[in-house]
Amino acid sequence: MDSNIRLLTKAVTWQVSGFFTMMLIGFFFTGSIAASGGIAIAGTIIGFIAYFIHELAWSKIVWGLSKR
Q1: pLDDT tens across 15-45, in order?
Q2: Less packed terminus of the chain by CB within 10 Å, N or C?
Q3: What is the distance between the alpha carbons of residues 14 and 19, in angstroms, rounded to a whole number?
């Protein structure tokens, strides 16, 4: 099971890579750095919260865990 700090670190590194990907996609569709930055920031914040809650929920579910 991951510690909360490990979950937080995984969420942050995932969101950093997602931020740049989303900004590139947003720029492709809008042609605006400001608009793509706003889209990427909103997506990063929402995605970070959703990912962290998702991981916390799954860390409490014992189904499918192997006993080592």
Answers
A1: 889 899 999 999 999 999 999 999 999 988 8
A2: C
A3: 9
Burial letters 31-48, b for 16+ CB under 10 A, else e? eeeeebeebbeebbeebb
Q: Which strand (E) or helix (H) includes residue 17?
A: helix 4-30
First to last CA, the chain: 12
Q: In the chain, what are the domain boundaries?
A: 4-59
Structure tokens that stand for 46 in this block:
């929402």
Whether the Cβ atoms of residue 52 and residue 11 lie closer than 8 Å to each other: yes
Distance CA 60, CA 58 (A): 5
Please state the separation of Cα 50 from the chain's center in Å. Answer: 7
Q: What global pTM score does this model have? A: 0.64
